[in-house]
Hints:
The protein is built from 21 helices and 20 strands. By secondary structure, it is an alpha/beta fold. β8 and β9 form a beta hairpin. The chain starts with a strand and ends with a helix. It comes from Sporanaerobium hydrogeniformans. This is NAD(+) synthase.
Amino acid sequence: MNHHFFKVCAATPKLAIGDCHYNTEQIITCIREAAKQKVGLIVFPELCITGYTCADLFFQSTLLEETKESVKRILKESHAHDMLIVIGAPIGYEDNLYNTALVILKGELLGIVPKTYLPNYGEFYEKRWFHSAHDIQETTITYCGFIVPFSPYILFKSKDIDYFTLGVEICEDLWAIMPPSLYHALSGATVLVNPSASNEIVGKESYRRDLIASQSARTMCAYIYTSSGIYESTTDLAFSGHRLIYENGYKIAESQLFERDNSLLYGIIDLERIYKERMKQNNFKHSSLLKQLGYQTIEFTLQPPSFELDRFVDPHPFVPKDKRMRHARCKQIFAIQAHSLARRMEHTKSESLVLGISGGLDSTLALLVCVKAVAILGKSPEQIIGVTMPGFGTTDRTYNNALNLMKYLGVTMKEISIVPSVKQHLLDIEHPIEQHNVTYENAQARERTQILMDLSNKYNGIVVGTGDLSELALGWATYNGDHMSMYGVNASIPKTLVRYLIDYVAQEESKQEVKDILLDILATPVSPELLPPDEKGEIAQITEDIVGPYEIHDFYLYYVLRCGYSPSKNYYLAKQAFKGIYDDATLLKWLKTFYRRFFTQQFKRSCLPDGPKVGSVCLSPRGDWRMPSDASSRIWLDECERLSEEFSK
């Protein structure tokens, strides 16, 4: 099962300018090599059968006739391969010559797309030889024995590959103010290809990269770009063979420049992701303008061979791998949190911020945000009331870290033990104190929340929530306990990112004594500390031993919410992402846990307090995630069970 992944290739063959025979041999060599790699689509450069720099040779009948013979050879070769082939060639029609891209499949010519925008500035003189697609009156052409559409407004749609519709634009088309690819995408194209002959000058490589990244993002498409290589270089021009494969703004693959052999760049695109991204948008609708353009859709049948997924799948999709990018991301997120909280404090005319400090990750991040927020408003950190509330499971390590952190940050410190009040409460409800079940645990969480709420009333403040996105997804919060606050600054921060935010503040915005405490907090196991410590006085209740590793759950959370993938695809991706880290049985076990908890705990998310959205995945019931509290998880868990049965075989 390919899970809607599709393998593509951007090819730059060796060529000799004007030698159609040699060029065709190299093109066929590339096609055969791509077939061995189980490619479903291969794209060649602009005018690569003849060479782009033929200049006035394009007016020679011999060159145009040899081009046609070369196309026939490629058509014959294509019989043997389940592969779409897009290739550039000059084609004469009536009294004009056109720079075109031919779309070929298994011995058939499906259609011909002429270039719309012809560069005629600087080193380019295309209008000397070619006419624009704007000049076309008819929409069909007879070429190499086929009567096919001849228009810039053609889409090629697969009958049997879900979500695959191909659109073609040629080189300068992309650089135009209104690229044809915009219309292609609005008309349904999910994969865009660009056969190009872009010469290399200083700075053009990065501009080209940015342009393709931006266009793939704007159109929510996969974009495959290939350009003429070094053997196209002549007279005053040098070509580098730059090839790029992007998907919705993200780079899948990029070539080196100036490679001297036949060069093939492979990439695997996720067609379902493109489809799901568009489902969330309302821009991809047919308009009256598109109807006037008269798009034709050519349907085809293609069954490319299955392939092994060698595409990189990031095990930590919320955390950028690049250190500089991660630093910038954390800086921006921290600013969003702090400025949002400052605005809430300002709007409510609150005189204080009240929050519980446990010495754990989430309350530490919330405290750091509070310190930043009051600084933004020009207030003293003493207006932050940090409350440590030791209970039955509090350990010396977290207790001391909580106290020292508040001390060095200069906030108002309060220590209120919940042990006496919880003991009395358990006695009142006739619950044995030695019975360490959910009642025993939640009584502590609710007692802490009551203390914070009452303190906020006393000091005219607001209670700042500390729970994070991962906990909300799993329902790992006590209803009307730590689940509740007046503003939840961490509500859209996944657990895997919390650590990096604290590390950012430690490294960039903290004095040494604060930094040392923060680093020790980062090294402390995640725990709610609701059960008594072990015989060594250490944490006995480790969250990830109970609900599973947060890095796995954050991975599932991202793909369930951001992409809407099925359990089987999420599991498939997890095996790729965590290869060599977790075995398949472990990944499947926590997949079931994720779905079970995610569905049963929606009622907690349906009444969340406000909190700033910082990323594309958010569980606010007022914005990104609206789900019935009583929705059934049956079909998702049934699919998980089928995966278990397959695994056991």
